[in-house]
Fold these 4 entries.
Entry 1:
Amino acid sequence: MTNPTERIRRAAVAGAFYPADPRELRAMIDRQLDHARTLLKSLPVHALPQGAPKAVIVPHAGYVYSGTTAALAYALLERGRGTIRRAVIVGPTHRVAVRGVAVCRATAFATPLGTVPIDVTSEARALGLSAAETEPSAWRNDMRATDDSPAPALLVNDPTHVREHAVEVQIPFLQTVLGPDLQIVPLNAGDASPAEVGDVLRALWGGPETVIVISSDLSHYHPNEVARAFDDRTIDRIAALDEPIHPNYACGAYPVNGLLDVCRRGVHTAAGQSVSTSAQAPSSPSFNLDLRFLGCCTSGDDGEVALSHALLNPSDTAVLAHRPVPLDPNEPVVGYASFAVWQTVSDTGTSSASQSSSHSLNHVINSATAGAHGSGIANDGDSASRADSSDYTDSSDHADSDNAGSGTGRTDNVDRARTAIALARLSIRRYLGIEDPDDIDPQTIVDEHGWLREPGASFVTLTEGGRLRGCIGTLEAYRPLGRDIADHAIDAASRDQRFRPITASEYPLLDVEVSVLGKPEPMRATSRDELESELRPGEDGLIINDGRGHRATFLPQVWDDLPDPHDFVSHLLAKSGLPSTTTWTGSRIQCHRYSVTAYKE
């Protein structure tokens, strides 16, 4: 980085913060991950959400001090291997201060485990540069984002990255848990407001392919007992989204505060400089961001991590974590903690189900769906309790909507609907502890239906007396559909932040809907007029994406409220953060359409 033409940022702290020898480094990371996996397996089944976290907060000290604490979060990120292909890593500036959030002009970072490319295209977009300005060597040092950038606090600064360790120490863990197909966006956050750092995160938020890694230690060089007291208060504040955290209590306070700003104000802000997250009513929220404290220690604890007591015993919130007896209460120490943030879509999207081929499950399926309002007939039209999201899925359709109206196709849809709803209901009953004697493990349903073992993205919507009671899902297929349905059923019942959790006494009053999104198809339209003429009202869900952080979708159900294509597109543009009057030609805005089949009771 001292040579202006150097494109690879060489490892600066290998041999100091972590082993320089690749074998030693792999062995150390493997040991720490194995320890973390063991700790996580000790937690109750539903202590943490399913799937990979969208964001983590992890410490950045030497691995012998903080590696076991960081490994808690990275062991959870392993769930995203094969799906997560980009890590946006934001650390503080320990050596060279900056005002704002700094990228560098390197094209890759090197560690003893190999070289990881930087997603310079996304950096250029976040800076507000054109498609012709994505070559970092052409960027000026200390160049700031353009006035119309989605991340105004972003700037280019090489010196702050030369010896900074906060980002670097995260990369070997990421290489290990996410594999070789990884890109990174390394950022150093200096003096900046929570909203400024938050807008940088929003501009780079992406979909399931992206994880946000916030690099921060806690207090520094207080006696162990004093440090623990300071750190416990800071952990409580972070868990409560109580920003701003002061740098005296977390050296990575600026990046931490940026993530808390996103958790508090949402991925999409009023300024519209980011990914839109809602898709039915323009004011509807669509992403839930669920932040969980995982565990903590200090540099004086010899790597012994204290798990979050709330994960071990959710009913007891009086204790933050049962820390070990300090080896030396008066030893000056540094504090460490790990957190994880899960993102779920709080409003529904799409649907499908699959034909039941197992007679042994008929009784369970019938009893699980009985007493509601029918046997799970396919329904594409009811949008009263739905909203939508801006991300889209790569999963294929699991229901053949073209055959839904006749013969075998309709029977297939009905049977698949009954099976999917039964799976959702059984999962909720098990979670509430009100299983029937004849209930089977939900996994048995998945095992006996091949379509549930295929990758799929689902939404589960719960209503009570016609009113929305919970709705969570995802629009990207990253795991088997059956698992996705089962987990989102529990999430909708317990983790939709707009509602109190479902109780056992409410269960008989619930109606359940399960949905799966069809595969988006690119549209040929090269202008707004062409797009509006190609749209099929009542049939098409629409995704728009300008490639610069403005992305949004409307489900087909939204046609019920906006039947005119011009109005439909206008509202969707506004949802994405673009002016509703926006027009374009060429490929400035990419458009995809998709279909939806919704199964409900």
Entry 2:
Amino acid sequence: MPLPANFPGTYFPGRGTLIEETYLRGEAAGTTKTKAQSILELLAGRGVPVPESVRERITGCTDLDTLNRWFDRAVTTTSTDELFTEAEAEAEAAAD
């Protein structure tokens, strides 16, 4: 799993080593997992139903920028469909 582009640098001992890279990947994975969980909790707290397919899409996402965008939308959304609308349009535009 590549590190997110916006992931902060580190002062890890042995900088630039395989150990540091492995550590940072683990930290990035933990960050995305926490953000995904926050999105699900926010939706549940707001009473927005989350189908299993949506739950899997959110928890399976490893892109922190996408998760941050979904989190921002989860604050005001009334359905999970609204979380992905722009993301799908952007993906289609990038494929063209």
Entry 3:
Amino acid sequence: MSTRDHAGRADRARRPAPWVRTRLRAAPPAVLLGAALAFVLVLLAAALPRALDRGADSALRTYLRDAGPAATSLLISAPAKSGQDSPERLATALATLRSRVGAAFRLDPSGPVHGARGLHPRSLSNPELARPETVPPQLGLYFLPAVADHVQLVEGNWPAGGTADGPIPVALAAEAAATLGARVGSVLEAPSSVGVPLQAQVVGLYRAGDPAETYWTGLSCLTEACLSLTSVLPAETFWTTAGLVGPESVGRLLDWGVRAEDFWRLPLDPGALRADRLAGTQAEVASFVAGPDAAELATATGRSELRVASDLPDLFARALTRRFAAAPLTAVGPAGVAGVALVVLCLAAGLTADRRAGELRLLRARGGSRAGILGRLLGEGAVTVLPAAAVATLLAFVLLPTPRWTAALLGALATTLLALLALPVRAAVLLAAPRQAGGRRRAVAELAVLAATVAAVSEVRRRGVAPPGEGLDPLLVAAPLLLALSGALLLARLQPALVGALARAAGRGPGAIGFLGLARAARGTGARRGVSVLPLLALLLAVTTAGFGATVLDAVDHSRLRVARLAVGGDAAVTAPARGSLSDAFTRAAAELPGVRTATALWTDDDIALPPAAGRDQATVVVADPAGYAELARTVGRGRFDPALLAGAGPGAPVPALVSADLAGRLGREAFPLRLAGGTEFLATVAGVVDGTPARPEATTALIVLPAGPTALKVPAVGRPNRWYALGAIEDERLRALVRDTTAAPAPVPAAGSRPVPATGPTVLTSAAMTAKLGADPLQHSAGRLFQASVAGAGGFALLAVLLTLVRAAPERAALLARLRTMGLRPRQGLSLILAEALPQTLVAAAGGMLLAIAAVALLGPAVDLTSLVGAAVPAGLRPAVLPVLTQALGLAALVSAGVLAEAAVSGRRQITTELRAGDSR
């Protein structure tokens, strides 16, 4: 080996070891814990925006799909002109429209629908056709070039040929032909204004492959005959359907339909729309509906009268309103988690800095510059934090794919920067020149926080939540966090006095463990005596966030139930068909269904004639058992009354009645005549006033409620109820099965020689089904999941904050326990001492957080609108609820207490043994 090699080795041996490598090797557990903490924080910071984006996109797309293909399409039409329409012109216009619209939006894979149609169906005069109530059926005509891909010819031929003055060849749906009584070869005649009837000959029958297919949206009655009502009272039913013509008969649609139009429906693909671009998409669609793009479409197709219509602008506006209305509520939970995570980061940095305080001061004493020391600490952090942050960011991008990445990347970068700078900043404070205690500065800072809290709460209460369209309301998000911060500062001031009083009370007891632990909790631990604000702040933020979120979710559930009950009239409702009634077998069996708490059957009619003194022609009358109906009205919250008001009617006395306020002022206390269900006339008298009825949620005026017993004696027909209501946990499917088994609605009597009209059965509604429907919106699911995840995350970080506080005080506590152990302290008593020291802060914080959560709801509740989360319009305001807040507070207190107990049991004995072996150097 050469001399040069020996010199190189000697030089390397004399060279000092790299700082970062040495420090990382010196405390591997601390390095791993720091990397794990950075990984979790960065993962949450990157994942949250992406999860919110995915939830918003999913909610928007589901909302649009639920609206139906017709509402999410551009409906384009142009008047048809005689001699100028042909299948080729329709196809050319379609290609032009697709190229223009498809360049701005992605079209739905189901594809566009186009064709021509007559605008007015004609009545058919054939006497052999079905007439449910003597009204002749109607037939409309369509030309659909691509219909062969969606139907199957079952009899005859497709329409083709035909002469200009002969019958129009048409094809009918086989189901429609069977309903009307037509067949292949039938010539259908329709009267015309010129005296010569128009004729259409059935040349073929077809059957749709899937009548529910998107293709048939908006193509009325092409797959079956539809039962319609005349617009003239009394309304009568009649059949209407439509037939298909061939390409040679497109020009004759004008004759049959009086007017005709060419139409194109271009469905947009909801799966390609994004919530963050919704405002721009709304403007683009509006331009196609009534703007420059609409004019360009008319010019490109050569149709000056081209019209474009769509419900998409209104749908987009409602979607934006829903999103912005839910944004403040969904942001409170993540903001609370971010606050607790920041506290944990500060505690972790403080723990590391305190552990290395001697080392850092020694380096400073030996001539190290503050900048150099902080730079080395920053280098240590870069080696541990940056790889963990990069892996966490990549994992968030992979697990939660979404086209938007800016917010997630900015959140990850900001969190990484905080994790990098936390220790250097804490070390800079530690190495700074010592200053006198800043009691005045602390008081000023606390007063500033209190003033900011009062200002934020007052402003939110004064102006309410930011109007829809203005984005996230920062004040509504910041106000609960400021309340928690103010509460933490206040508790930090009050806790020594409160726990000190408990310590003095414990000192008068027989044992010393409780007194010693409580005294240490009141005095605080560490180099700087006093209660630390950071652990209190973490716990208060967690409890306040959890309590506020739990109150919101509880209010949403109760609001949905109220809305559903108001719409249904109870928890379950069964309504007989028109002019029908419910059987006694059904009412008896329904009352015995599992979950039924209260059931009542009643009779209603909306067309009861009133005497001239009432000032109204007609009224809604409800005949019901007073006791059951009063319970129903009280639970639903509509039309409450005292059932005693409807009691006491003798055989010859007027029947007591509850009336709406408008009738009460006109009828007075005098008896007035009533005639129900074609029975004899009887007298009724006003016994009270009601504000509505569960049987008619929308009826608030011209309402009369009568007791069933006395009224049935006057008019026996009202003893056959046509409605049934119940309260309780009633299964929707079980009730529907009972209705099918025990009721059979009578079919309307058909006219002579006509086909019978299908019978319609009772209508069944349940609050459970309606509540599930209201809560099926992904926007609400996303908000609920976000609240639950926020509660879990805040609880986990709060537990970590408490454990870090325990670890920070562990050396001093171990020394104390070692001294006490030499004086005869038993291990179980040592565990009790640790719990007596650590649990008061947890319990005080849980109680304070519960009070703060209730206060936050009470102060901010009037500004909260839950409509977007409920799924229906509800009155604005959020009321405090003790039970959900108490549940969250107790759950978090139990979690933290269990963590403290586990930490004490696992590490307490080891710390004492280590201290006893090493000796006490303090």
Entry 4:
Amino acid sequence: MKITIDIDCSPTEARAFLGLPDIKPLQDAFMAQMQEKMASGLSAEDLEKMFNLWMKPGLSATGETMGQNMQKNMEAFQSMFWQAAKGKEE
């Protein structure tokens, strides 16, 4: 036996029905704070460094595969992003 129930409601209505909190004000405050930190903490050179780390293609000189190289680049990119978001310099 298979029963299907379709519920037509908005995400806001679903959260209210399930008793989940409305975190929209928290998200808005967090995004405003992140935008402020990113705008004040990153220069054009920093953005170029992050882009180059992210987009470095192909095999590395150490013989790593593209996937391994991309993972290292992603980790370095994330590290630079979080340092910039925290307002710290390397």
